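Hi R.,

Here's the input for the pyridoxal-5'-phosphate complex you asked about:
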Amino acid sequence: MPGKSIFYLLALIASSSYLTYTIVKSKNNDTPKRKKNVADLIGNTPMVRVNSLSEYTGCEIYAKLELANPGGSAKDRVALSVVRHFEEIGELVPGRGDVLFEGTSGSTGISFAMLCNALGYTAHICLPDDTSNEKLQLLESYGAEIEKVKPASIVDPNQYVNAARKGALNLKNDKSTLANGVFANQFENDNNWRAHYATTGPEIWEQMNYDIDYFVTGSGTGGTIAGCSRYLKSVSNKIKVFLADPQGSGMFNRVKYGVMYDCVEKEGTRRRHQVDTLIEGVGLNRITHNFLQGEHCVDDAVRVTDDEAIRMARYLSSNDGLFVGSSSCINAVAAVKIAQNSKPGSKIVMIACDSGTRHLSKFWKEALKIDKNITLEQVLE
Ligand SMILES: Cc1ncc(COP(=O)(O)O)c(C=O)c1O
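And here is the predicted structure with pyridoxal-5'-phosphate in place:
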């Protein structure tokens, strides 16, 4: 009888949607409030226990999922803080045709591109012409103005950061238009570390119920480690901050021994990229203004090889369903190494900076070659 079958079908649909609703609801009691725009979605990212690493080490290892920001990384917070500051001082006014210039081959450009669209500005991103396709396509999809320049040293006036600075100045001085140009300058801009001091740090502290033993992350501009560690040290004197550093970076020696040096800098051994690693976004051979703002809060450093990070990528994806980018993986390796040298039950927080989708063509291409059943012992070999 068709009437009866329709009744059964409707009953089935109703009960399955109720079931889905109760499953989702029971896991998520804090339904986020609706927001006015994308800018309001930035921050308040989730914290998740990394079960495989916690069980193996006997410590509590948690990942702060910065990849859950609307632009896909912690750089959203920095972009918002930089833009709001320019608005406060009248340098950016929505709808006037103002352009924000930044030199970046990383996530920052994507965050600025997203935010500028949402707030009424244009993002002009200068980047090296060998920037990965994933990032270029994302910038193109947001419709950002893209200026590709040849990779060059920071002292070269045509280097991408210097190109961005020059572009902003040219527009600022252009009397034929009302539009203003500003240079975001994430490496030197204090609104970078301050964004993490004001938001990421307090969120971590609250999410961990005011009890953390170790905080670990890498350093690119240094904004995340400086801002978070300054905040965390201001609320607890037991927290130890560790820098996770990729191979080829001089930061490890800077933290450990006060000297910025890596053996790849030996005469005749320098390669095409100053920091020769597959890891993107972290590791440098120069000290940045933002790192300096929190250097006194960084207690120790862990060096992680590319091989360890690649194996960890595969391991986290297979065991925890965490599909993360390269810098998150060095943080995870460092977190395990810290756990192995600390008392059971210690609480360790690492930053999961961005998703693996940003790294498919390079880092994850290598990670896919690893057996998905790899053990943690093999990861750390
Ligand atoms: C993927 C990724 N992870 C980590 C970082 C490092 O963050 P910070 O610049 O705050 O040191 C960056 C910086 O661009 C990044 O792009």
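One thing worth noting: The first strand starts at residue 47 and ends at 49.

Cheers,
M.
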